């Protein structure tokens, strides 16, 4: 990587030291993606937390699994990834979440998300709320808010994070599991929004956004006083808007195995870059590099090579 970022070795070393103290939470679903090639750990908050940790953060997942073999497998898988278990509850009445995933010819996933599962019963206890009191960043989406008690629990947990923390709403529209009320309330809680090119037209229709893509992103940022709006466009790269500033990054060519988890990796890189004080263009470039690598691997949580572990390795 050399000195392409314009940062000295001293600055990079300082970022590594800082990153180890970044306390980051993914809040919401954890599940098994049932892919044609076999099952893979999934759920956007779980993927986000994994990648934040792989990049060097103290990252935790707050979720719920069933008291069943699939739940025990999730706990074992997370433990093998070096992740903490203390934020994951066990539900005796509902099964562990699963999602059937079919892939199109270009590797794009199509999801069938099963209902009435353990993460729909996510709760916000006092210990978890206290743990969030010194969070640097939290990431949450709309899917895990599809039912109560998870919806109210997630809102309570996000509100427990400090006012100056990153509160990232990765909108993650899936099937019919979203509503205008959930989206508006989440945007009002958030200060960072991440969405993809398929989700923007849906959001535009729900919220009455006008104009071209840039105008809609700017309107979202200004209307909800967001620190950053992130639009990912698959092979087309990404567009970032931060209070009047823009950054556009072309997509990187890779041989795609599947795209599951690539957006979550992108979000983790954005969170780490913002916390480290990176320039907007550097955040955008690095996030694309990480997302492209995930696309080149099967599943959402591949081990990261040293050249992508910018903080953890001090590269």
Short structural description:
The chain is α/β, with parallel strands linked by helices and 315 residues long.
Features:
single chain, 315 residues, alpha/beta, UDP-N-acetylmuramoyl-L-alanine:D-glutamate ligase, four-stranded mixed β-sheet, globular, disordered N terminus
What are the SSEs and their pairings?
Elements: H1 9-19, E1 23-27, E2 31-35, E3 38-42, H2 44-54, E4 58-66, H3 69-80, E5 88-91, E6 97-103, E7 109-113, H4 126-131, E8 137-140, H5 150-160, E9 166-170, H6 180-189, E10 192-196, H7 199-207, H8 213-223, E11 228-232, E12 238-242, E13 245-249, H9 262-276, H10 280-295
Parallel strand pairs: 1-4, 1-8, 2-6, 4-5, 8-9, 9-10, 10-11
Antiparallel strand pairs: 2-3, 6-7, 11-12, 12-13
Helix pairs in contact: 2-9, 9-10
Question: Roughly how many Å apart are the termini?
Answer: 7 Å
Q: Name the poorly predicted regions.
A: 1-9
How many strand segments?
Answer: 13
Strand order in the largest sheet: 5-4-1-8-9-10-11-12-13
Number of domains: 1
Please provide a written account of the structure.
The protein has 315 residues and is an alpha/beta fold. It has ten helices and 13 strands. It has helices spanning 9-19, 44-54, 69-80, 126-131, 150-160, 180-189, 199-207, 213-223, 262-276, 280-295; strands at residues 23-27, 31-35, 38-42, 58-66, 88-91, 97-103, 109-113, 137-140, 166-170, 192-196, 228-232, 238-242, 245-249. A nine-stranded mixed β-sheet has the order 5-4-1-8-9-10-11-12-13, with helices on both faces. The chain has a four-stranded mixed β-sheet with strand order 3-2-6-7. Helix 2 (44-54) packs across helix 9 (262-276) and helix 9 (262-276) packs antiparallel against helix 10 (280-295).
